[in-house]
C-alpha cells in the first residue's frame, strides 16, 4: 500500500491533474490541504482522499498505479476495524457487536498522505495538532517518522515499527491529540483509514452510550449527528482545537 501511494504521488504532474479536486462529493480526489482556506497556515503534504465504504468508487475511478492494492488493503482494514470495534465494545462492558450495530464500522475513508522533503521544517508542520473526528483511525506509516502524540503536555514521538498499525464514549476512550513534523528526510508516506459516516446522508444521532451512564457518570456531551460533528473541522480547519468543546454540556 505504501509503495502504491508513493507511485501515485510521484507520477507526472499532468497525470495527477486528472484527479485533482476540492469538491467534497468526489469519491477519489487528489488534493493538498483540505482546510487550505480556513486553517491558520498550510501543512507540508499532499493527500489522496477516497471514500471506500459503504459505497466505494468503481475500480476504473481509481488511478491504475494504486487501484488493485487500495481495493485489497481496504478489505483487510475493514476486517480489522470490525475486530477492533468488538474489542472496544467488550472493553466498555458492552456486547461485542454493540459498536458495529450502531453503525461505527459502516463508513470508511482512506487518506493517503505524501510528505515531501521540507527545506525548512522549523517553519511548518506536516500535519498540525489535532484530534481525529471519526469513530476509529487505523494508521499505516513508513519508516521516516515524525508522528507525535501529546501526553501530559509533552510531545512524544511515535517511532515507526515495521508491520505495525497505530490506533486511536463519554471520555472513556479519548482521541489523542497528535501532529506530524515536517522533515528534511523524505518523502514520508502514511495511510490513515477513518471509520466514519460523516460523508453519508444520515440523520442518526450519537451521544454518550446510555448503558454507560449513571448518577455518578452523567453525560458530558450533548447528542449530535456525525455530519454536524465533522462540519466543525471543515469550517475551522486543523487549528489545534478539538470540536468536543462545542458539544460539551
TrEMBL record:
Alphabetically ordered keywords of this record: Iron, Metal-binding, Oxidoreductase
Keyword Iron: yes
GO terms for MF: dioxygenase activity; metal ion binding
InterPro entries: IPNS-like_FE2OG_OXY (IPR044861), IPNS-like_sf (IPR027443), Oxoglu/Fe-dep_dioxygenase_dom (IPR005123)
Xref: Gene3D superfamilies: B-lactam Antibiotic, Isopenicillin N Synthase, Chain
Lineage: superkingdom: Eukaryota
Domain Fe2OG dioxygenase as annotated: residue spans: 106-198
SUPFAM superfamilies named among the record's database cross-references: Clavaminate synthase-like
PANTHER family: OS03G0690500 PROTEIN, OXIDOREDUCTASE, 2OG-FE II OXYGENASE FAMILY PROTEIN
Family to which this protein belongs: Belongs to the iron/ascorbate-dependent oxidoreductase family.
Identification of the protein by name: 1-aminocyclopropane-1-carboxylate oxidase-like protein 11
Amino acid at each position: 500500500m505504501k509503495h502504491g501511494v508513493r507511485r501515485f504521488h510521484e507520477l507526472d504532474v499532468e497525470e495527477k491533474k486528472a484527479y485533482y479536486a476540492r469538491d467534497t462529493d468526489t469519491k477519489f480526489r487528489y488534493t493538498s490541504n483540505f482546510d487550505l482556506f480556513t486553517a491558520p497556515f498550510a501543512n507540508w503534504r499532499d493527500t489522496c482522499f477516497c471514500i471506500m465504504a459503504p459505497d466505494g468508487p468503481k475500480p476504473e475511478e481509481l488511478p491504475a498505479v494504486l487501484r488493485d492494492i487500495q481495493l485489497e488493503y481496504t478489505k483487510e482494514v475493514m476486517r480489522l476495524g470490525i475486530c477492533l470495534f468488538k474489542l472496544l465494545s467488550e472493553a466498555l462492558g458492552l456486547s461485542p457487536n454493540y459498536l458495529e450495530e450502531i453503525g461505527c464500522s459502516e463508513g470508511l475513508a482512506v487518506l493517503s498522505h505524501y510528505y515531501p522533503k521540507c527545506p525548512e521544517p522549523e517553519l511548518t508542520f506536516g500535519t498540525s495538532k489535532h484530534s481525529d473526528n471519526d469513530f476509529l483511525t487505523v494508521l499505516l506509516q513508513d519508516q521516516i517518522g515524525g508522528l507525535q502524540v501529546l501526553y501530559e503536555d509533552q510531545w512524544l514521538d511515535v517511532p515507526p515499527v515495521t508491520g505495525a498499525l497505530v490506533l486511536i464514549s463519554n471520555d472513556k476512550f479519548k482521541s489523542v491529540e497528535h501532529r506530524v513534523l515536517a522533515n528534511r528526510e523524505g518523502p514520508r508516506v502514511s495511510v490513515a483509514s477513518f471509520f466514519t459516516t460523516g460523508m453519508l446522508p444520515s440523520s442518526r444521532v450519537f451521544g454518550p452510550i446510555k448503558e454507560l451512564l449513571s448518577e455518578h457518570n452523567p453525560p458530558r456531551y450533548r447528542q449530535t449527528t456525525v455530519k454536524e460533528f465533522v462540519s466543525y473541522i471543515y469550517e475551522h480547519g486543523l487549528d489545534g482545537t478539538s470540536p468536543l468543546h462545542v458539544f460539551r454540556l
